[in-house]
Design a protein that fits this description.
Blueprint: H1 3-17, E1 21-28, E2 35-39, E3 47-54, E4 57-69, E5 79-87, E6 92-101, E7 105-112, E8 115-129, E9 132-141, E10 147-152, E11 161-164, E12 172-173, E13 180-187, H2 193-221
Antiparallel strand pairs: 1-13, 2-10, 3-9, 3-11, 4-8, 4-10, 4-13, 5-6, 5-9, 7-8, 11-12
Helix pairs in contact: 1-2
Length: 222
């Protein structure tokens, strides 16, 4: 293997070892096909919690949810309260992050009868999470009746769902699976052993070839 080949192999190995971060949809619980119904405790002082899965270490930058709304009846949303809980064996674990956020985006994605399907989005303060299972808790203000968190026909997960009527002090089992997604930055996994081995071999080879060339040049001068 010549110096150029070793150099190329080394560069490729170093590039592969670098953490690859990219903006992406981190989790989407709506695979399309519409909504079967909506349910409204998120607008009645309840916290509704839904499980989600991150396949890589991630930074949550934004959160979106879809709801059935009624024109001229659903009140403007002044705050979206988002909480992230750990997964304690399929039940709500400790609170990891939480905050109240203004609506950053709002768009109508469809409708049925008197209802519009409205997607609300908020910006999150770069919440970092390791790969794994979690729960997201959602509540909106002001309290209102004509807002119903959409239930997707094709959810990503079967759904572990809970609700709380006491501000998150306790949770009870809840029957519905909802439409939401997280967007942000995902970070690639740590390089495999074979990648590290390729990098080390490349560095050793380059060092040896450089040493050999210097030695040959010294012998010619002598």
């Amino acid at each position: 293997m010549d110096v150029k080949t070793l150099g190329l192999a080394t560069c490729l190995a170093v590039f592969a070892c670098a953490d690859q971060a990219s903006a992406a949809v981190l989790f989407n619980n709506d695979l399309g096909g519409g909504y079967s119904a909506g349910h409204n405790p998120i607008a009645q002082d309840y916290i509704v919690a839904q499980d989600f899965l991150l396949t890589q270490n991630s930074t949550l930058e934004s959160f979106f949810y879809n709801a059935f709304t009624v024109p001229n009846s659903t009140l403007p949303v002044t705050a979206v309260n988002v909480s992230i809980y750990g997964d304690s064996g399929g039940t709500i674990g400790p609170l990891i992050y939480g905050g109240s956020f203004s609506v950053a985006s709002q768009s109508i994605t469809g409708g049925s009868g008197r209802y519009d399907f409205t997607e609300y989005g908020v910006n999150l303060p770069s919440w970092s999470l390791a790969a794994g299972s979690y729960f997201v808790g959602l509540n909106v203000a002001p309290r209102q009746w004509d807002m119903h968190w959409s239930i997707p026909v094709n959810p990503t997960l079967p759904g572990l769902n809970f609700s709380s009527s006491d501000g998150g002090a306790s949770f009870q089992s809840y029957a519905y699976n909802h439409a939401f997604r997280f967007e942000g930055i995902s970070i690639a996994a740590v390089p495999e052993t074979s990648t590290w081995a390729m990098m080390i071999v490349g560095f050793v080879g380059l060092s040896f070839m450089a040493y050999r060339r210097r030695r040959q040049a010294t012998l010619r001068l002598a």
